[in-house]
Design a protein that fits this description.
Length: 153
Amino acid sequence: MNQKQPRGWAVLVSGGLNTWNNFPRYLHDLQFLYRIFRQDFGYPKDRVLAVYADGPVIDLNGDGENDIYAAAKKEHLNKLFGHLAKQVEPEDLFCLCVTNHGDREPDLGTFVWLWQEEFLTADEWAELLEPIRSQQQFLFFQPCHAGGLIPAL
């Protein structure tokens, strides 16, 4: 049977906040999600983009290659989503999976921590996602208070 290559993209994000709060479970979440998209769903390596902490070299699926695309910093996410806005087609499935710490402050609303205590608010996530042309999007936010992101998205 001639199986068609999946037309999808997966962005996996875990900032960790800082060295003291970057718990091992966040890396394990990334490893699990990365393996699902690469091995179970058959996504090619260049379509599963893991953004993690300070951008260390980590093999997420045991093939001996670095699988971390970039550090979880605003600058890198802005560049990545700018690139994806040009690459993702309307018929592609776009998946964003975020695992990490989240919080809520009266002046900021709900936000997700990145690395080195940077963060993205609900409105900033919406701005990143707005130019993505995919008509099918799966957004998975695991952090605390993530439900507060929904109105903006």
